[in-house]
Amino acid sequence: MTSPDDERSRHQHILEEARRFAHEEVRPRARDFDERGELARDLIAKMATQGFLLARLPQQYGGLGLDPVTYGLVTEEIGKACCSSRALMTVECSLVGETLLAWGTEDQKRRWLQAIAKEGKLGAFALTEPEIGSDARGVKTTFEARGDDYILNGRKKWTSFGAIADFFLVVAMKDSSATVFLVERDQPGVRVTPMKGLLAGRAAHLAEIELENVCVPKDRMVGKPGSAFPYVVGTALDHGRYSVAWGGVAIAQASLEAMVTYARTRTQFGQKIAEFQLVQGMIGEAVAKIHAARALCLRAGELRQRRDPDAIMETTIAKHFSAQIAMEVATDAVQVHGGNGCSSSYPVERLFREAKVLNIIEGTAQIQQQMIAKYGLRKYYHRPSPE
Ligand SMILES: Cc1cc2nc3c(=O)[nH]c(=O)nc-3n(C[C@H](O)[C@H](O)[C@H](O)COP(=O)(O)OP(=O)(O)OC[C@H]3O[C@@H](n4cnc5c(N)ncnc54)[C@H](O)[C@@H]3O)c2cc1C
After folding, report:
1. Is 275 among the catalytic positions?
2. What was the pLDDT predicted at 387?
3. Are residues 106 and 201 in the same domain?
4. What is the pLDDT of residue 386?
5. Is residue 387 one of the residues assigned to a domain?
6. Residue 367 CA, ligand 1 centroid: distance in Å
7. Cβ atoms of residues 55 and 66 within 8 Å
8. Could you give the CA distance from residue 231 to residue 121 in angstroms, rounded to a whole number?
């Protein structure tokens, strides 16, 4: 039996290792991944060996068993170095891993989580379709029972790591009620087309997936029939949002560090541009925004650790805010770099592009504003009373 102190120092050690790994093995290759439009297989394999792909999951399923806060801090370290590497953690650990952990059968957990942790396999989460995004409950991919199997038909789009994943969690509909199925890439009727020409996520192996009369055995259903909304998909998106919230902090922090370094190095009008108050204004704002976003993420992490019912909403707020400030800080970081900010020779050009995506994935900014507003309208109402 390990003591709480031993456990804390194990987590601290993993965080330090993540920092080293990100700095030495991920960051130097991030630009190359973006330009080539792929994460190197050897890096993915190393991330699996280090346990980062399932960092939050229990050790019995090949994870590192990290608490939510340490998992968030690890996500920030990897995300600062390379957004697509962070996206890989989001997909494997949060969207696929946590979902199977919560809703999979014991057999599914042992087989598929083990496959990610030990066998070099990857999963992907396929909800969005060409015609269906924010209105996720309207998915058009269908399933129908045939004997002991299910037959799936439809198309998925924007599936991160879909181009190289070995299996997909596919959300499909029957009679207005959706169910999640685990579909293997090499099953007959599955066609995968990589997506190119993207603003960001260029190394996140996005794909379109076509399913034509794909026969899925009944033991590949994840959760119960009709349980996709709000249960199985809700779990995936909640964990995905927590991971993306930290991804926003990561982009903002990396942008700030680049902005400060550049401002203290670049000379105009005979002085370092860091000495101009208008430049300092951008730096000051960035520091304050990042500290606020990180505080929201830490609070969400602590609530998640305690399984507090407010954790889901606080996670949504953290994701919304950190995505917002990531875009603002990355924009200012480009501004401080002047023309150089528009060149891929400087990381802020990539950070600026990657920041935009965070306002779209795991719920767009507008959908999240509505969720937060509904919560606010409920929580902060006080029956007017005479003064
Ligand atoms: C890089 C990247 C990676 C992705 N990875 C995945 C993945 O792994 N798996 C997956 O399933 N999907 C993934 N997606 C898809 C992503 O989740 C969707 O793009 C997102 O949910 C938005 O859906 P949409 O693009 O269809 O936009 P739409 O829903 O069509 O929205 C278009 C615009 O209309 C606004 N809008 C829509 N409805 C409302 C409303 N009710 N009120 C106000 N405004 C509204 C939106 O906010 C947005 O501004 C990814 C997308 C990107 C760009």
Report:
1. no
2. 74
3. no
4. 81
5. no
6. 9
7. yes
8. 25
